[in-house]
Amino acid sequence: MKQYDAIVIGAGNAGLTAATALQRGGSKTLLLERHNIPGGCATSFVRGEYEFEVALHQLSGLGTEDRPFIMRKIFKDLGVMDKVEFVQENELYRIVVTDEIDTTLPASWSGLRRKLQADFPSESENLARFMKLCETITLESFMMLPRARKANDEATLVATCPNYIKYGMRSSKDVLDEFFDDEKLKTILAAYWCYIGVPPKDIPFPDLASMIYAYAAFKPWHIKGGSQALSSALLESFMEAGGEVRFNCGAKKILTNGDVVRAVVTEEDVEISCSAVVSNASSIITYNELLDHDQPPIAVREDFKSRRMGTSAFVLYMGLDCTPEELGVTAASNFICTTQDENLVYEGMQSMDELHAGMLTCYNFDDPSFAPEGKSIVTLVNLQYGDLWKDIPEADYAQTKYDFAEKLLDLIAQTFPKIRDHIEELEVATPLTMMRYLNTPDGAIYGFKQNPQDSELFRDRIESISGLYLAGCWNNMGGFQPTYMAGESTARAVLKKLKTERKECEYA
Amino acid sequence: MPKSNVLNKVVGYQEAVKAKEELAKTGSDFTDQKWATARTIAKLHPKRLTLEVSEIIDETETTKTFRFVSTNGFLPPFQAGQYINLFVTIDGVETARPYAVSSSPLQREYYDVTVKRVAEGFVSHYLLDRLEVGQQLHSTGPMGTFYHNPVFHGQDLVFLAGGSGIAPAMSMIKDVLERKLPYQFHFIYASSYVDDVIFVGALRALALKYENFKLTEVISRPPEGYDGRTGHLNSEMITELVGDLSHKMFYICGPTPFNEYCQSQLWELNVEPRFIRIEANGPPKYPNQMKDWPESVGVEDEITVTVQGKGNFRAKVGEPLLNSLERNGYQAENACRSGECSLCRVKLISGEVFNPPEAHLRKSDKQFGWIHSCVAFPTEDIEIML
Fold first, then answer.
1. Residue A449 has pLDDT above 60, yes or no
2. What digits encode the pLDDT tens for the residues B204-230?
3. Which of A70, A170, A195, A423 lies 20 to 30 Å (CA to CA) from residue A29?
4. Closest residue to B333, CB basis, from A36, A395, A405
5. Rounded to whole angstroms, how far apart are CA atoms B341 and A436?
6. Is the model's pLDDT at A257 over the cut of 60?
7. Which residues of B touch A166 (CB under 8 A)?
8. A406 contacts in B (CB within 8 Å)?
9. Between A37, A226, A405, which is nearest B345 by CB?
10. CA B296 to the chain's CA centroid
11. How many CA atoms lie within 13 A of A133 on its CB side?
12. Whole-number Å distance between alpha carbons of A200 and A210
């Protein structure tokens, strides 16, 4: 008799979601977390009077109460809807390109069209066609395409996914170039690439289209108390359902009988038997270090070869003793670039010397309760690839991080000139900080690089080790909604397997 | 991919598959990354250090400096002002205390830890009376947020230290002077008695040698005939010593009453909070004197602490939960023991605790019952999850 049906390694978004869905689905589940708090990225920390959101900028996929979208159902099924409060953002984003662009888009599908058509009258018809395409290709890729693939039926695909067939494999840049002449409009529409860390020429068009459509139609959201509140709510729901959790207790090994999972050994050298393991650790560490095989399975190694390491992030968490208004903030989410040249911006993400883009998120703009009265919490982000930081001698690390922080502040101060005058608290997080807290190679925050070939469309499900499941961003997209969804779908797969095994037991 | 894959119908799919095959030809299977992440993190943030006492230096009647070297030869870098949490076992009780590193961050052969005897202390007595050269202890890596942050702390620094609060200042002073940083550093050192003054010889020598370093010694209980500066660091004295207060960064480190007093004086002088940095200093000694303490409860009252699935014990209301847990053989991760670092976070399943303002809890912690055990005072019978 196994001690647990399932052991979940890591209480990040996907791990927490998987554990909660498993326990609520009737599986006896143990959740192991090497830190003392659940959430992974979805956490917060306190300095003085300020509680800083670590990673969530805009939660997607929730929809409104009147017009709910998929995350509302997932959170309801996980038992957390009555434990957290969501705050809607009114703007999609403000984008500033030095001397070229300064515009703010509303978080409304019809409002977005009106705003852009008013600003770019010559592109009016193209905009109408483009937005229609964004909407339909989003629905096709999320609803119809999976059905057609499951049935593996060409006729279904042709009948239900005409836009996907035409545009599904094209790059975002390619499609923007096809629809529009105005370079500024293209820059404005492509701004969300700054969240992904891959330039528009390498982002599959459906990814950008669904970001624009989902955020505008279903709104961007904050969480009261930050993403930590949702992480703690998930844990609470997991425990209410009878789930067991151990903090400060990482997993050391996943033990197998040949190619079948049998147990997990904790950091404290305790062996715990189980039927299934869900690893929320990176796939690289899961197969290289946790699995008790000398080498990762051949299918895994083959799969890895066409992957590339994903982006990390450099972040300044700032508590300011002024209001958002005094700072000049007019939207919660801001993209600040020095140039419209995306390739230059992308090169900057791979350099310690150049910096061409940054984001500023102001958390108390739409939710005044997020910061003490009269004060503000803002986060500055520059997506950056972590390998830049790995070889810096440890004695030079602190100075290097402060030097780079100055660069990011200089960039942001071009748009928010008063920002340096109000700093009451400031913490700098580098890719090495991400590495420390997330335990990911190169401090990657979204798993592997999200180039077109990273998509699961090009990947077979790896089932080399029976009972071992990966939940997280390393074989799916990164970000909040994708990782919650990955946890939920992984739990479904595990529940199905456990049910089948139980039946086999009964018949045996 | 099987030939019958419907995606073949999608324009550009074949090309994308070819692109993937090209990537595979030049890619890595990442087996060379085995343990690479752990090794990189360990260079900066090892979870534990094994330290050995290499030297014990008598500073004053009540104070010693312990020089620690690493048993594996490696000590991570730290920012001057940071602390390590020293784990000790005293007569069977496993506990720990955080101590600022007083040596310069520019050398990592050793960390100095300067310990002053605390009147009703537990660990300070052990270290001062029983720790010997050659003995080994575990500690955390360097931690804490009390240090000069060059991004916004400026170059005009004033440090108000009381008693053993000099320890982080020593490291900061050495850092600034040895690196020849273009900062003004004014160190104002308040002590009760003249024979209580730590590091004073070294400090006076530095003040003579460096123009950008200024030392002011203040004694609150001077002997007869003492001709130095006496009194308390009130607003008048601060104004007299510091002059123009604008754009100076104030660091305050000493016993909690000293910290609170200095802060109140700076506030009185309209120094804005963003120019004041205070090092946390342990749990409050008199929680019952704080705002929101439940009137009907006394610090000497006894309550029962139940640790879910593990057992229970009796403890006094006035004793921080982490301390009573340790005295009764339970372990919780910890580091700052002052409410800030959040490592000793435990879940309160039932009952009430008093959380002083020192407990830097997250908003959602309050909703879901998480507490920082190092500064939590159980005001009735409680059950917790460890």
1. yes
2. 999 999 999 999 999 999 999 999 999
3. A70
4. A36
5. 16
6. yes
7. 11
8. 151
9. A37
10. 33
11. 23
12. 14
pLDDT at residue A508, as a whole number:
64
User: Under a CB-based contact definition with an 8 Å cutoff, are residues A195 and A477 in contact?
Assistant: no
Is pLDDT at B1 greater than 60 in this prediction? no
Chain B residue with minimum CA distance to A165: B10
- Produce one character per residue of A291-321: b if its CB has 16 or more CB atoms within 10 Å, e if not: beeeebbeebeebbbbbbbbbbbbbbbbbbb
| The pLDDT of residue A391 is above 80 | yes
Rounded distance, CA A451 to CA A202, Å? 6
Minimal C-alpha gap between A226 and chain B (Å): 8
Q: What is the pLDDT of residues A51-79, one digit of tens each?
A: 999 999 999 999 999 999 999 999 999 99
CB atoms within 10 A of CB A328: 12
- A448: β partners: A309
The CA distance from B226 to the nearest CA of chain A, in Å, is 40
Alpha carbon distance A40, B352 (integer Å): 28
3-state helix, strand, coil in chain B (%, to 5): 30, 30, 45
Nearest by CB to residue B273, choosing from A226, A394, A424, is A424
Q: How far is B274 from chain A (nearest CA, A)?
A: 4
Q: Do B19 and A453 touch (CB under 8 A)?
A: yes
How far apart, in whole angstroms, are the C-alpha atoms of residue A185 and residue A366?
26
Tell me the average pLDDT of chain B. 96
Residue of chain B nearest A439, judged by CA positions: B37
Task: Point out the residue among A165, A236, A427 whose CB comes nearest to the CB of B9.
Answer: A165
Nearest Cα of chain B lies from the Cα of A39 at a distance, in angstroms, of 12
pLDDT tens per residue across span A308-346: 999 999 999 999 999 999 999 999 999 999 999 999 999
Residue A240 pLDDT greater than 80, yes or no: yes
Helix/strand/coil for B86: strand
To the nearest whole angstrom, how far is the Cα of A293 from the nearest Cα of chain B? 12
| Gap between the Cα atoms of A18 and A162, Å rounded | 34
**Residues from chain A contacting residue B371 (CB–CB below 8 Å):** none
Parallel, antiparallel or unpaired: strands B49-60 and B136-139: antiparallel
Q: Is B150 exposed, middle or buried (0-12, 13-18, 19+ CB in 10 A)?
A: middle
Beta strands in A134-286 (DSSP E): 221-223, 244-246, 251-257, 260-266, 271-279
Cβ contacts from A onto B, under 8 A = 176
Q: Which amino acid is at B117?
A: R
